[in-house]
Amino acid sequence: MPSPPKAPARKKDLKVNKDAPPSKPAAEVPASPAPLTAKNGAPDEFALPTKEVYKPDNQLQLVEKDLQEEIAKMLTANNPAAPKNTARFNMKERVYKLEPMVDQLLVHYTTDGWLLHKASEDARKQQEVEKQVEEATLRFQNEVDRAKKEKREEGTDTDGPDDSRQLRNQFNFSERAAQTLNYPMRDRETTTEPPPTASFSGTCSQWEIYDAYIADQEKQRAQEELNKQKAAAKKATTVTDTAETSQEPAKDDHGNVLHHGNMERAVKVLERMENQNTYKELAMDFKYWDDMSDQYRQAEGSLLPLWKFYTERCKHKHVTSLCWNPEYYDLFAVGYGSFDFLHQSSGLVCCYSLKNPSYPEYVVGTDSGVMCLDFHPQHPNLLAVGLYDGSVSVFDVRRPTKPLYSSTAATGKHTDPVWEIFWQEDEMLKQLQFFSVASDGRVTLWTLAKSELLHQEMMELRIGSNDKKEVEDEPTKGNLAGGCCFDFNKAQDHLFVVGTEEGHIHKCSQAYNSEYLQTYQGHDMTVYAVKWNNIHQRIFLSASADWTLKLWEGDNPRPVMSFDLNNPVGDAAWSPHSATVFAAVTDDGKVHVYDLAEKKHEAVCQQKVVKKAKLTKISFNPKHPILIVGDDRGCVTCLKLSPNLRKVSKPADEKQKVEDLEVAKLNKVIEIAMKGGVAAE
Known about the structure:
Layout: H1 64-68, E1 87-90, E2 95-98, H2 121-154, H3 176-179, H4 206-234, H5 239-247, H6 261-278, H7 280-288, E3 303-309, E4 318-324, E5 331-337, E6 347-353, E7 362-366, E8 370-375, E9 382-387, E10 392-396, E11 405-406, E12 418-425, E13 432-438, E14 442-448, E15 453-460, H8 468-472, E16 483-488, E17 495-500, E18 504-509, E19 518-521, E20 527-532, E21 539-544, E22 548-553, E23 561-564, E24 569-574, E25 581-586, E26 590-595, E27 605-608, E28 615-620, E29 626-631, E30 636-641, H9 658-675
Antiparallel strand pairs: 1-2, 3-30, 4-5, 5-6, 6-7, 8-9, 9-10, 10-11, 12-13, 13-14, 14-15, 16-17, 17-18, 18-19, 20-21, 21-22, 22-23, 24-25, 25-26, 26-27, 28-29, 29-30
């Protein structure tokens, strides 16, 4: 039977004959010889197949040297799906770093097995057990063989030996009932005399617990008194002093234990410990957080919200004043009143601490709304407060039950709301005194006497120009401008600037109380705040209801720089660390932070803090990089400045001072602004 015809060769089945000349065309390849045939002329089915080589037309032409060249290929066991740019945060250097080692292992299948490695400890123990079993089996077999041999030699009965001890199977299993001796049960009893018992019963009420607590407190106080007496005797005090000390009776504090000072301090410590656990994350952010994105943006910053301070007693009240304590940097006072003059109510003064955001440390209520307050710089326990009814008061925050001093109509109180108050020490008499300004156009000096509050009129703010003839003119003598704010110069404490309702700012001196030293005109509406720079003694800032912030210098009656915030500006404040950084709050709930060294026309940070409230006041902390803002709903929010918002000049050597560098930096900014025409007209 003839073999079927061969199918034509496909391209992928073709093989190249390396022995053929490389340049020889495919047409010149000799045809394969005819298939072998058997003797009878039929095709041989057992003949070896012939090899036919076809060369494609597009095959690469290689010379013998190229064919003999060895090409090395390296195979790697890398996972193609493994990530190559994995970055992890380095806690030590506080930056993100690329991970140099990437795990290339990829497990396709895994299962638990029962195999043990020969070199492992478990395999060694198993081999020892198997060896012991084999040795025991061998000893038993040898014993059986020896017994059989002895019986054959003696010619005795050739019964098989007792193989009851022979292992039944490889698990070394034996039946307990057949091979274990069961010992009989035994009971043992012992009788002893019963221990003596006594019945006791009683009742305990809350009053008995209270009496026991009181007795323990009295015992402790008596022991303390006894220890004091012994200590006094050792110091060889006089007999009279010893007798007076021994005759002092113990105080009866039965009704004041729960309200004792020690109890109050203990409760405060417990409350702070609880708040420390509750606000742990915020405390860690306050101490360690820095916005890492500031490294990639040079002239931008951010504010991190921390705590919110609020109490139910300040509901429906406005935050009218903020003031940090000059000695305890975690303590600040908040004044609550109302800027809505048609809806006035009682006021409130709260002293909050960063250590306890849940409730104020001290709370003082007033009959009229609180409009301003200020801590004494040398006596941090004295707090001066200005009220809406025109009176001023001085409180001791250690005993905030009632004011130490308070002004009345008989002692010369203001007839309109007091908008600003400021402590200042008398260098000559070393008396405690403070200044106040009100809408009645009076700047008043108040002095703390032994039993009363003395007042002295420092200046009357008159409407009009600074002409002596107009001041002495009789028809205009009674026209007074309402004062809204004022601030004293940090270097020359006798100089101060006053902002008025008509938009003018007057520079005054305590030595010349009959006229203004300078009048600054630039605002069209009420000036809400004026602040001297904390470092530069010739620069001050003003905020007004005409939506602008203005920067003033020395005797220049026109503003050096002006910033439009598109909303009424409620308050402004300079940073205590840098001469070019200041912040302001607006009615749309935003905080604007400026750094004139970075941007002269725009804010480096503009962030909305509250949604549906108006921000009224702002204050920088004198030590920590935080600020607080108050709104018209009685809430105070603490914000932390990012590194770009608290840049400070670094001196090149020890001779340079940071203050001098900051002053030079601000002078350069003002000089460029005046030369470039940035000054507002």
